[in-house]
C-alpha cells in the first residue's frame, strides 16, 4: 500500500505545483498587459512616441541628486524622456519638474517593461553605459561619478537651484550666524562649510566597509584653511551632533547647525566659500554646489571590503577634479 499512497502524494504535489505555476503565469501576463499593453500596442501600430529613460531613485537627498544628474545627461544624449515621479523629493527641493508616464498617456509602472541594466561600480565610471542602444531603458544603481554628466554641469547647476522657501531659510540662518559671530564678509573673511558624516555609517553600514573620518582629519583640514586665510570661520552641519560638539568643543571660530532639514543644511553649506567634507555623497554634493576649495577624507572605505569594490583604484571617477585628499 505504501507505493500507491506515495504516488498519490506525489501526484497531489505535482498538481499543486502546476496550479501555482499557472497562477504565476496568469499574474505575469496580467502585469504585462496592465503595465505594458498601451505602449506595446502603440509600437505595434507604429504610433510615434518618445523613447524613455528610467532611473531607480533610491537613498537620500544626495543619492537622488547623483541619480538625477546621471539620468538627465543620459536622456539628453539619447533624446529621451527622463521619468521623474511627482513623489520624487527633488521636485520639492529644486527647480526640477516631474515627468511621468501618465503625462505621456501610459501606465505609471511602464519602466517595468524596459530592458534593465545594473550599474556594477556605484562609485566609478562605466563607459559602457554611455554606449547602450538608443531605445527605452531602465538603470538600477547609484551611478556616483561626475564623469557621466560632465558635459551637462551648467544645466544641472541651474536645475539644482533650491526653491525659494529653502533658499530664504538658509540665507536667514546665514545672516543670523554672521551677525551673532561678528563675521565681516565685506572685509574678506572666509567662511568654510564643514559636513561631518558619522554615526549612521558605523551603525548601519559598518559591515559593508564604510570608513568614517577621525577627528584628526577634521583638525588637519581646518588647519589647512587657517594657514591660508586670515581668521576663517567654520559652519558645521552633521548627522551626529553630540559627537561633533564633543570634538569641536571650545572652538570659538565654529558654528554647529542644529535642527535643519537635509535640504536646508545643504543650502546653508552651499552659501559658504569652501568645503571640508568627510565621507558620503551629501558632503560631495555640498562641495560641488559650493565650487570652492574642497578637502575630502582620502580613505572612504576599508581595504578589501565590498564597498571598496565600488571604486576604481585612484578615486578619479568619483571625486571631482581639483579636490584635495587628506588624512
Question: How does this model look, in words?
Answer:
With 327 residues, the protein is α/β, with parallel strands linked by helices. 41% of the residues lie in helices and 12% in strands. Helix 2 (61-78) links the parallel strand 1 (52-55) and strand 2. It is elongated, with a radius of gyration of 25 Å. The relative contact order is 0.11.
Key attributes of the depicted protein:
10 helices; elongated; 10 strands; 41% helix; alpha/beta; 4-stranded parallel beta sheet; 327 residues; 6-stranded parallel beta sheet; single chain
Produce a short descriptive summary.
The chain is α/β, with parallel strands linked by helices and 327 residues long.
Topology at a glance:
Layout: H1 2-44, E1 52-55, H2 61-78, E2 81-82, H3 90-93, E3 115-118, E4 137-140, H4 153-159, H5 164-180, E5 191-196, H6 199-205, H7 215-226, E6 233-238, H8 241-247, E7 254-256, H9 262-270, E8 274-277, H10 281-290, E9 294-297, E10 324-326
Parallel strand pairs: 1-2, 1-4, 3-4, 5-6, 5-8, 6-7, 8-9, 9-10
Amino acid at each position: 500500500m505504501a507505493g500507491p499512497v506515495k504516488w498519490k502524494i506525489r501526484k497531489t504535489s505535482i498538481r499543486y505545483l502546476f496550479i501555482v505555476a499557472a497562477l504565476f503565469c496568469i499574474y505575469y501576463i496580467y502585469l504585462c498587459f496592465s503595465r505594458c499593453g498601451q505602449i506595446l500596442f502603440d509600437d505595434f501600430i507604429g504610433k510615434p512616441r518618445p523613447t524613455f529613460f528610467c532611473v531607480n531613485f533610491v537613498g537620500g537627498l544626495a543619492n537622488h541628486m547623483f541619480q538625477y544628474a546621471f539620468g538627465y545627461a543620459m536622456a539628453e544624449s539619447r533624446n529621451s524622456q527622463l521619468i521623474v515621479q511627482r513623489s520624487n523629493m527633488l521636485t520639492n527641493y529644486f527647480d526640477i519638474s516631474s515627468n511621468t508616464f501618465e503625462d505621456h498617456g501610459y501606465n505609471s509602472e511602464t519602466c517595468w517593461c524596459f530592458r534593465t541594466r545594473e550599474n556594477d561600480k556605484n562609485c566609478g565610471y562605466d563607459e559602457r553605459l554611455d554606449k547602450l542602444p538608443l531605445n527605452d531603458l531602465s538603470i538600477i544603481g547609484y551611478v556616483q561619478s561626475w564623469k557621466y554628466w560632465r558635459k551637462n554641469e551648467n544645466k544641472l547647476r541651474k536645475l539644482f537651484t533650491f526653491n525659494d522657501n529653502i533658499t530664504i531659510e538658509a540665507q536667514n540662518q546665514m545672516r543670523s550666524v554672521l551677525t551673532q559671530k561678528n563675521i565681516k564678509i565685506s572685509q574678506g573673511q572666509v567662511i568654510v562649510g564643514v559636513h561631518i558624516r558619522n554615526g549612521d555609517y558605523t551603525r548601519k553600514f559598518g559591515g559593508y566597509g564604510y570608513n568614517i573620518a577621525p577627528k584628526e582629519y577634521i583638525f588637519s583640514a581646518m588647519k589647512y584653511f587657517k594657514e591660508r586665510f586670515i581668521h576663517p570661520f567654520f559652519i558645521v552641519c552633521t548627522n551626529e551632533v553630540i559627537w561633533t560638539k564633543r570634538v569641536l568643543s571650545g572652538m570659538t571660530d565654529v558654528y554647529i547647525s542644529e535642527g535643519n532639514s537635509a535640504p536646508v543644511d545643504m543650502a546653508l553649506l552651499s552659501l559658504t566659500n569652501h568645503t571640508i567634507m568627510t565621507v558620503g555623497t551629501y558632503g560631495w554634493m555640498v562641495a560641488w554646489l559650493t565650487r570652492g576649495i574642497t578637502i575630502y577624507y582620502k580613505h572612504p572605505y576599508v581595504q578589501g571590503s565590498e564597498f571598496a569594490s565600488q571604486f576604481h583604484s585612484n578615486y578619479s571617477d568619483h571625486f571631482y577634479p581639483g579636490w584635495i585628499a587628506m588624512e
